[in-house]
Amino acid sequence: MTTWLVAGGAGYIGAHVVRSLQAAGAQPVVLDDLSTGDPLRVGVPLIKGDIADTELVVDTLRRYQVAGVIQLAADKQVEQSMRQPLTYYRRNVVNLLQLLTAMQEVGVAKLVFSSSAAVYGMIEGDDVRESDETAPINPYGETKLIGEWLIQDQARAAGLRYAALRYFNVVGAGSSELADHGRTNLVPMVLDAMRRKARPVIFGDDHPTPDGTCVRDYIHVSDLADAHVAAIGALAQPGASHVLNVGCGRGYSVREVIDMVAQVSGHPLDPIVGDRRPGDPASVVANTDLISATLGWRARHDLRDMVRSAWEAELRTASLPSPAPSPDASGSTSEG
Ligand code: UDP
User: Fold this and answer.
1) Do 150 and 45 reside in the same domain of the chain?
2) Closest CA to ligand 1's atom 25
3) Which end of the chain is more exposed for a tag (fewer CB within 10 A), N or C?
4) How many angstroms does the Cα of residue 23 sit away from the middle of ligand 1?
């Protein structure tokens, strides 16, 4: 059985990657500083520590005879990155450099890197391709793009094989204990508003999109996790390296997402339309031809599955209001 080190495996996405690896018959070992991660959701050997601690990483790679590394140990909040750029450059770039140094020392030459659609910046449209221009507009996106460059250069120089996965909007939960504890993305914010008995806020409905609200490509976290396993398979080929979008390849508007939460939960929602959020492109949808051709992977879950899994996880972990009987609530049960 091959062993893979999942750096950041106690986080929301990392914990799902651990489950997908196990399902595929691989042996995950987690390295996580637990800055935002939760040790209770790991379920496999967990080393508490920093990817910047070269000695610890070298020792871990040797001790577990690690075949490759999945690197998700990074900070990911756009707004925070604008206030604390030094922290983001240190944790997302310098620490990655340290991790690559340790991998080189041991001769571990396979890496799956968690990148982001944030590398594209203000790109607009329903067909964002990997070959499109990268022009990030915040430190978070910049650190992800610099990470890709660093890895690419190391691949050229030292024979590293890598897959950089550019995540689009990740939603949902594979099970309730693996739910997203963050409160900065659309679906968690809508659920949070419901818990507070407040109205969700739409950041602008005057965008140039069909219903005026922003359109994004949402991807179920379990599908995303499976893409990591597919990427590992592709790295078996010598010299293979890939930069790949991971999304559904279709867009949903903010209003469609909120409507889906209302349908799935059986709670009517009456969103407030607020101002546009600075730096939000109107529409960003992945072209997923490359990942399906390269890895034979495609998303299996649609928006309803994503929202339903997030809602069910919330029901188990939070004190949400119980579903109100409502004449139009059939959507919440018909496909359960
Ligand atoms: N959004 C919104 N209300 C919220 C949170 C997000 O209208 O409470 C919108 C946001 O403007 C964007 C979309 O939902 O168009 C997705 O935002 P998120 O922060 O989840 O991801 P992003 O696409 O910005 O990375």
Assistant:
1) yes
2) 169
3) N
4) 32
Query: 224 and 82, same structural domain?
Result: yes
Q: Give the residue whose CA is nearest to atom 3 of ligand 1.
A: 202
Contact indicator for 15, 41 with CB cutoff of 8 Å: yes
- pLDDT, tens digit (0-9, with 9 covering 90-100), for 10-33: 999 999 999 999 999 999 999 999
Going from the Cα of 186 to the center of ligand 1, the distance in angstroms, rounded, reads 5
Paired with 286 in beta bridges are 128
**Which residues have any ligand 1 atom within 6 Å of their CB?**
169, 185-186, 189, 200-203, 214, 216, 254, 277, 280
Catalytic residue among 140, 162, 167, 252: 140
Residues 272-328: pLDDT tens digits? 999 999 889 999 999 999 999 999 999 999 999 999 999 999 888 765 555 544 443
CATH of the domain at 184: 3.90.25.10
How far is the C-alpha of 304 from the C-alpha of 259, rounded, in Å? 10
Distances (CA, A) of 201 to 72, 189, 272, 290: 30, 9, 5, 35
Quick one: which of 238, 248, 334, 335 has its CA closest to 291?
248
| Edge-first strand listing for the sheet containing 68-71 | 46-48, 27-32, 3-7, 68-71, 110-116, 161-167, 242-246
DSSP symbols for 146-205: HHHHHHHHHHHHH--EEEEEEE-EEE--SSGGG-----SSHHHHHHHHHHTT---EEE-S
Indicate the pTM of the whole model. Answer: 0.93
216 CA → ligand 1 middle, Å: 8
Q: Rounded distance, CA 216 to CA 168, Å?
A: 8
For residue 200, the enclosing domain spans 176-216+249-285+300-334
To the query of whether residue 140 is one of the catalytic residues in this protein, the response is yes
Residue with tokens 């707004």: 79
Give the residue-averaged pLDDT of 146-175: 97
